Amino acid sequence: MLYLMRPMRLALALASCAALDNGVGELPAMGYNTWNDLRCEGVTADALVELADMLVSLGLADLGYRYMNVDDCWSRATLAPDGALVPDGAAFPAGLEPVVAHVHGAGLRFGIYADRGLRTCAFRPGTKGFERLHAAQFAAWGVDYLKHDGCYAPNLRRAGALEDYAAMRDALNATGRPVLYSLCGWNSWYAPHGARLAHSWRIAPDCDEWANVYVAARTNEPLARFAGRRVGAGQGSGYNDPDMLVGSNPAAPAHLTPRQVQAQFSLWATMAAPLLIGASLREMPASDLATFSNPEVIAVDQDPL
Q1: Catalytic residue selected from 149, 241, 243, 301
Q2: Which one of 180, 184, 255, 292 has the fewest beta carbons within 10 angstroms of its own beta carbon?
Q3: pTM, entire model
Q4: Is the per-residue pLDDT at 249 higher than 70?
Q5: Is the Cβ–Cβ distance between 263 and 30 less than 8 Å?
Q6: What integer pLDDT is reported at residue 40 of this predicted model?
């Protein structure tokens, strides 16, 4: 009986809580993410400033790609004595504030990465138990987007995962700053709960090769009813996230063929998925730039209906 009641209490709590209906995320997010470009070793203040400028100079910002998101490895390996996150001193000698200011000055929005577990996937500190403190830090820094990963934490449907993501949702709401919240749990069973928890939710593993692009697309097929732009008390809007767009530069940590890049982009637009470029901006093949800049395909992705 007790075993049955715990999932029931969770379901009731999720049904009754306020969604992250904070004025952002009404349409699928568009922007850039560092992971499939810089991995860990390339994450520095100078690199983020340069890449933000490239989003503008390549014309991508004008097309809607306005989120400049740093992924894992931006923080140092340990928390401060009070539990606060601390930017890596070698990569960000002046802290994050000058980078965020530059990104905002370029007309873009700044995104950051965290993990709901004890550690991030690259073994930097997680947010478990410090959600309020870390959300307050993000708000103070001027963060506009949070990717919240799920490494080093239980990833079971009714054993901690939904509660952890709800804790950060509430912490972000409490700051009063409109942060786009991106849940990264890599499972399709987040979709029925997604709009109550976040603005987008990962439904499949990382897309780092064509086979995983295929898996993500097929996984997302039956999930359309859980996503979209909704109006109503506590409903919010939210989108299934099949992971980032992959480019065709063969020197990148993850890459596809140019034709596969086109196919992925078309599929993602058809599925109303977030369009986050996970490819090199500094060495982007002309074919990739043409694909990601196609206004008609972007219009399908961003169609409010």
Answers
A1: 149
A2: 255
A3: 0.93
A4: yes
A5: no
A6: 97
